[in-house]
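Mods, move this if it's the wrong board.
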Amino acid sequence: MNSWEEVGKFLLYAGLIIIGLGLFFMAFDKLPFGRLPGDIRLMQGKLNIHIPIVTCLLVSAVITIIINVLHKR
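Not the wrong board. Structure tokens:
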């Protein structure tokens, strides 16, 4: 393979990733991230603390599955 084919494949994959991220962020408001049961919210006066424990676990699991699927190729 010549170097231009590799550059083309890289740009293609980068573009697909950017499109996927764009679609994800467009739908992000409709997803319950940050409002899942198990996420901790502490509000006292002007102090608001939000600890998204379950959201972080869910995102970590999804990313791990995606990386494992892509790594097996």
